[in-house]
Amino acid sequence: MENKPQENQTESAQGFIDTKKLITEFLGIFALTYIGSWVIVYKDMNEITPAGVAFIHGMTLTVFTWITLDVSGSHFNPAITLAMIITKKIEWSLGMFYIITHFIGGIVGAGFIYIQLTDNMSTIIAEKSIIGIPKPGSPHYDVSGFWVEVIGTFFLTYTFMGMNIHITKRKNQDWFPMGIGIMYFCCKLTLGELSGGAFNPARGLGPAIMAGTIGGTQINQVFGGFIGAILGAVFYSSVYMDERDADDDDDYDEEMEDSRVKEYIMPSEGNRNEIELK
């Protein structure tokens, strides 16, 4: 059986930079930005509803989380990574590379939209999302947009940490992608019109950089996202972390004890041969 302390120090053992992890994180935020921006373009053209926008964002996050959960942890969000750094669930050095990768992925994903938009599409959405920028439904929401991004990212961070940190080590790992995708869908559906519904600084900033229209909405999404993640990390750590870590330790001790008992009652082939020789 693997030693539990080694489980908790996986990131340290693998070192400073893990190219495989960075590639999967890049692909995840690239897909979320690329697919998400296209669906917003279609909404601006009245070809899909806001509920459809929320559903496709949620499904994209679910699928890519499922694919890469065992590789990189499926953050796809610099705010989530910041929360994991704060709670010491990822090395700060690797976490900083994650964050940089997320912003690059968001910009590249939006860049493909910029290249592929036809002149007719660009004309139709010029006064709306431009290239699929997640924007509030009305300029009057700009004041409340910051707090909406804080709250939405808080919910997303809390869900991510609550389902991922412990459950994926034990059982029910397949529930995690569904849980995070459903939460993103719910936040996007109910809060998206108020702030643009990025709940991810890279998702909000990437298209705005490509379009050259960084403004109050992006400030809300970036700072609101990071603050929401910090609050989520602090809340989770202070209320649940010690208790659940203790529970994991107890479970681990019980598993080790069960293993020793089984070995004693039903010795392995090697031990059985030693017993026969004696």
Would you write up a description of this structure?
The chain has 278 residues and is mainly alpha-helical. The protein is built from 13 helices and no strands. It has helices spanning 4-8, 10-14, 19-44, 50-72, 78-86, 92-116, 119-125, 142-164, 167-170, 175-195, 201-211, 216-265, 269-277. Helix 3 crosses helix 11. 42% of the residues are buried.
Give the arrangement of secondary structure elements.
Layout: H1 4-8, H2 10-14, H3 19-44, H4 50-72, H5 78-86, H6 92-116, H7 119-125, H8 142-164, H9 167-170, H10 175-195, H11 201-211, H12 216-265, H13 269-277
- Number of H/I helices: 13
Rough outline: globular
Query: Could you give the count of β-strands?
Result: 0
Order of helices and strands: HHHHHHHHHHHHH
Terminal CA distance reads 27 Å
Name the poorly predicted regions: 1-15, 249-268, 270-278
- Class per helix and strand makeup: mainly alpha
Percentage of residues in helical conformation: over 70%
- Radius of gyration (Å): 22 Å
Characterize the main sheet: none
Strand content: under 5%
Defining traits:
278 residues; globular; disordered N terminus
Question: What can be said about this structure in brief?
Answer:
With 278 residues, the protein is mostly helical. It is built from 13 helices and no strands. It has helices spanning 4-8, 10-14, 19-44, 50-72, 78-86, 92-116, 119-125, 142-164, 167-170, 175-195, 201-211, 216-265, 269-277.
